[in-house]
User: Fold this.
Amino acid sequence: MIEVGPAAELELGRGRRGGSSSSSSRTTREFLLGIAGGLPAALAELVEQLLAEEEEAVAVSVAVAALTRLRARARRRPLKSEVALDPQRAAACNRCPELARCGGDVEGCRWRWCRRSCGSCGVRCPARTDLAAWQQDVGGLGLEDLATAFPPVPQLPPLVPVVESNELLRWGVSGEWPAWALSLADAYSKRTGSPWSTWTVAGCGRGSPAERLREAGVRRLVLTGVMNDQRLAALWPALARRRLVAGFDLVLAPAWSVYDLDPRLEHLFAIRQSALGADLMAGGGPVVPTLNWYRKHDLDRQLIWLQRTRAAAVAVDCSTLPGAQRWRELRSALAYIRTVLPAVELHVYGVSSAERVEDLALFDRVVLYSARPAALARTRQILDGDLHPRCGPEDPGLCLLTSL
Assistant:
């Protein structure tokens, strides 16, 4: 068990800022070159030529289409555990004990919004006074020690709507769709971070929320871990002590944010904490680990771990992906994941536009999670055929089912 010290009680995420990715194009290129390495020579040359001519959007489309059609014949390239060092890394990187996992960065681990109140902000950088406590909290920053095998995941429909449990019961639609998803907010206390007693093993008896949902007709129930970092920070101590929820057929593991403007050390902590959370949850039932990255080798480290633990599914959170460049990076990452884990099922949270849904439809074995149909149903709106909102009937349950 991980020992939870004072650092685990920090409210991560306070005052943190994310933005558009200055590294996105570089990372997209890394993924595309990784995909090209498994394609027939002519297609690989085409992808490389498009990148050389700065036709990134076309290169992504070609690579995704080629991989989808030729996946059975694509060459699988073994992942390298060695991290390529950034030749332009800051001098301070050479003295960092985590350089072999990070690869270095031009700005080192400087956080541009640092207020010199070390140990009180939500960003873990080398200047923190409590860094040793955080290292102990998460058991180091590697992934090599995570060995829990991931149980098989249940079969789900291509779309799993995210809705509140009380609404699901009140609207009378529990048995009208093959699977429903609840948010962490339904099962964990915002104040304490601990699971509500009614969602624990001891409380999942007669009259519990899970039991009421099953009696109302729910066939598959999923818990989604997509939540802001403040809520995840509150959740962490309970999770580290293995105080887990029960009553779900599947859990989409939470993932701590990897912001582009955060120090690289914070990225390593976020990746470790996300992987460790999935590892801990996997001891209680089917879990889909959620992946985050800043560079390609961040994703490689996680894929090596998932190869070793034979994960049948992986998840990504698309709910905060602004702009076309970020979306191209996500598409190339999904295709790259499939070059390494050809049979893996892709669980994608937060996609709602018609264009992005069509992009994901090129991949097979994809499960989409969306809170948008339920959000519109609360205001008596529905989605039309182009996934645009319009006025619907007065019955919110009918609005929800119409959108689905």
User: Anything to note?
Assistant: Strands lie at 159-161, 180-183, 221-224, 250-252, 287-288, 313-317, 345-349, 366-370, 381-383, 389-391. The chain has a mean pLDDT of 87. The longest strand covers residues 313-317.
